[in-house]
Amino acid sequence: MNLKGIVLIAFVVWLAVPAPLRAGHEAGHTVSIERVVSPAGVTAWLVRDTINPIVNVRFAFRGGAALDPVGKDGLANMVSGLLDEGAGDLDSQTFQRRLEDLSIELRFNAGRDAFSGRLKTLSENKDQAFHLLKVALLEPRFDDTPVKRIRGQILAGLRRDQEDPDTIAGQTLARELFPDHPYGRRVEGSMATVKAITSDDLRAFTRQRLARDNLVIAVVGDMDAAELGRFLDEVFAGLPAKSQGFSVKDIQPQTAGRTKVVKMDIPQSAIAFAQKGLKRSDPDFYAAYVLNHILGGGGFTSRLYEQIREKRGLAYSIGSYLYPLDHAGLVQGYGGTANARVGETLEVLKDQWRTMAETGVTPEELADAKTYLIGSYPLRFTSTGGIASILVSMQLEKLGIDFLDRRNTLVEAVNLKDVNRLAKKLLDPDNMVVVVVGAPEGVTSTP
Amino acid sequence: MEKIKASGGVCSINPVSRGLAWFPLILAGLSTVLSPLDATAGHGVFNPQTFTLTNGMQVVVVSNHRMPVVTHMVWYKAGAADEAPGKTGSAHLLEHLMFKGTKRFPAGAFSKSVARVGGSENAFTSLDYTGYYQTVAVQHLEKMMTMEADRMRNLILDPEEVDTERLVVLEERRQRTDNDPGAILREHVNAALFLNYPYRRPIVGWEHEIRNLSVDDLRTFYRKWYSPGNAVLVVAGDINMAELKPLAERTYGKVPGSPLLDRARPSEPPQSASRRISLKDARVRQPSWSRTYLAPSRHTSIAGGPESLHSYALEVLAGIIGGGATSQIYKSLVVDKKLAVSAGAGYGSDSLGPSLFAFYASPAPGISMEILEKAMEEEVAKLLEQGVQDKDVERVKKSMIAEAVYARDSLSDGARVLGSALVSGRTIEDVEQWPHRIDVVTRTQVNAAARAVLDGRPSVTAVLEGEASP
Description:
The complex is a heterodimer of chains A (about 450) and B (about 475). By secondary structure, chain A is an alpha+beta fold. In chain A, strands 1-2-3-7-4-6-5 form a 7-stranded mixed β-sheet, with helices on both faces. In chain A, helix 9 (about 285-295) packs across helix 12 and helix 11 packs across helix 15 (about 415-425). Chain A is built from 15 helices and 12 strands. Chain A has helices at about 75-80, 90-100, 125-140, 145-160, 165-175, 190-195, 200-210, 225-235, 285-295, 305-310, 340-360, 365-375, 385-395, 405-410, 415-425; strands at about 5-15, 30-35, 45-50, 55-60, 105-110, 115-120, 215-220, 260-265, 270-275, 320-325, 330-340, 435-440. In chain A, strand 10 (about 320-325) and strand 11 (about 330-340) form a beta hairpin. Chain A has 2 domains: about 5-235, CATH 3.30.830.10; about 260-380 and about 400-440, CATH 3.30.830.10. With about 475 residues, chain B is α+β, with helices and mostly antiparallel strands. Chain B folds into 2 domains: about 10-255, CATH 3.30.830.10; about 275-465, CATH 3.30.830.10. Chain B is built from 18 helices and 12 strands. In chain B, the strands form 2 sheets. A 7-stranded mixed β-sheet of chain B has the order 1-5-6-4-7-3-2, sandwiched between helices. Chain B is globular and about 65 Å long. Chain B starts with 15 loop residues before the first strand and ends in a 5-residue tail after the last strand. The chains are: A alpha+beta (about 450), B alpha+beta (about 475).
């Protein structure tokens, strides 16, 4: 064992719950994050959790599908489907069989701004799990047969998506908002671009994009810092030091108010809508977070839920959420209602939007929202996978290793003046893009 | 990317939920989580503790002290399959209405309290049960129990609220079923597969019957089924039985008991004819095929057919032939013959009534349904002729059992697994002994189970195609 060179910085973080914890339980309820630097210089955040003999690893490389070359849309996604389809001296079936036999979960995923992966293993199989992850990252084979098969599955998925009104609504909305920007393209690509991707493209992707300088790693589970150091070197030290430089330009979404109807012969119209929003780094982000929670956020208490579903029975699902990308910010929402009631639903939606902009939130709503957003935070820390995924986001968003310490204070600091100022400045029902997929009655595309 | 998996009829027993669209997807995966597991057969899986209140309500606790949080669930032994004939959708509409109010906690008060303490909540309806849950910081547990106990008997069914919520449910039905040709076909498969057993009905209900449900229909269902003796309380998280017991006695313990209920349902007659169902819909771009057989569940045998003792062996069988990227069917149809983009088989052991064993596939471009069907039939014939191999039985058993440790990692999986077992005719011991019972399954038993369910037995074949098929 080589302990030399492992730098340990421990941060002990308390997760506040709204009322004091019961005496005697405090010691068990900390999430203590260690920053671990391996002998070869690979960094990861570690939460040691020995409740079960499990190790959960999550990691992400900055730079996602938004970097797919024009005409090769879907490249990052296709790589994500192929890294576990044969690597090193293991062909596709052998690799998959080994994962199954050892109960190892290994998955990759392409997002718009990052390419991520996750590995879950029982402690007893961790050496083999780490080896499989290593060869998947460093020596993917991209053999012709699995490439053909996965391409076929992606194409089948794209065909199937064309049956799904919600997917079509989301895609159409992205295209409307970002007509000339990679954010307007599908992460999965299109039939034509997926067919155009070659094995050389796949190989170039792993060479250029999977590197140590754009990588963040989180490990939660039955592992100590010394062992993690060895694991980091075993798996990640062989990656190139530097990724190929990239830049995606910041973009203002095209939110000039309009409605776009996509005709489909179905009984219920799917609705997707968006207006401009904030990036994660915006000083008003927490005010926006609280504001959206009151307007259309989760749970059964938002204004949209109350007015559109509870009072009028217009929809089963209705809501809104902040969608902060690396290079653009949006407030987006979704709903679904019978074709005959689309007009009424959109009217109530915009009316609620306008009322919120004009009169803001009440002190009671603000207090309830803050209590909820603070009180619900510990619920995200109830599994090793949940903790690991938060640790990855914290690193991608550069929130700092002490963020969990500060997070509730940031929510608590949001005051009525901030929220209402922001509501007035941000919410703009006249500059909202609405996409309706279905056969809505009395609603047509803006000419 | 998410690898393409089932599009077939295996998921016909998915619960329907009040909540947002993503939630049922989590529960849809439950049938896999629901096979709880343990790496060390001999130990229990979740190690729960239990006792029963004097009014007949069973109480179960699964301790997990990672965070000062609990999941509080109440399960009723009443689902869509317990509805009166002609009243489909009442279990589910009632589940929605449970979020309205009582005299003590008027409309919306419960949800507001949950939100105020930072909790999350939802509910779900399946064919066999209905459940309600909140996840909250442990110091708010008693408040949740007080409100949940209150709405067990004191719900106010206001006619206007019923009508508005009916509209919500009709939207839910449109969103989940009518907007999706695959879901429409699955409704028809279930109606064909079960000639008489109430699993032939959709959980959400038939539209015309949802429209006609009266306040009285809902009240009748509520009064009959919602009582402590017909419910199970499961609490998982940062609590033990010594702490939970007095809370349970103070809250649910105060609800008056009622006579034990008979859950008798119409039973399925022996079947003799296979059926074919096809749906051509212009919306369909990626066709799919499935063949479904009636199969015994842990609890119920098939009239004139396979017995429930086959259920553990059927779980192993499904793993060998149809689960995942190296299963026999995927390897043959997708990897080797390249006839399909996805293919597999599935089996659910957990239902109270008869279950099903299904094969599914989605054709590669240019491959006809006839070719695909023939290839699948060859796989089944080969299975019946040659049987499975010892090494595959051992391999699949090992990996099924290993999954148990993962199930323990989650706060709520234990509560879900135990709760659904206890309201579907199974016991805590069934859950805790599951790894051991899987461990002792033999190749001979797997082959016998395959023959019992598949060999010469009637089935329902379903084909979903676009109007211009490839």
